[in-house]
Amino acid sequence: MASVSKKDWMASFASSARKD
Q1: Residue 18 — φ and ψ, nearest 5°?
Q2: How many CB atoms within 10 Å of residue 9?
Q3: CA dist., res. 5 & res. 19, Å (int)
Q4: Contact by Cβ (8 Å): 3, 11
Q5: DSSP class per residue in 1-20
Q6: CA distances from 2 to 6, 10, 11 (A)
Q7: pLDDT grade, residue 20 (50/70/90)?
Q8: Which one has a higher pLDDT value, 1 or 2?
Q9: How many angstroms separate the Cα of 13 from the Cα of each of 3, 16?
Q10: What digits encode the pLDDT tens for the residues 6-17?
Q11: Are 9 and 1 spatial neighbours (Cβ–Cβ below 8 Å)?
């Protein structure tokens, strides 16, 4: 992780993971 807040990366991760 660079300088992304946990909430930021969490949202990105969730969005990336939920590519159904």
Answers
A1: -90, 60
A2: 13
A3: 22
A4: no
A5: --S--HHHHHHHHHHHH---
A6: 11, 13, 15
A7: low
A8: 2
A9: 15, 5
A10: 888 888 888 887
A11: yes
Q: Which of 13, 17, 18 is nearest to 4 (CA)?
A: 13
pTM above 0.70, yes or no: no
Contacts of 12 (CB under 8 A, 6+ apart): 4
Query: Which residue shows structure tokens 């992780």?
Result: 1
> CB-hemisphere CA count at 13 Å for 1?
10
Are residues 18 and 11 in contact, defined by beta-carbon separation less than 8 angstroms? no
Residue appearing with tokens 């909430």: 7
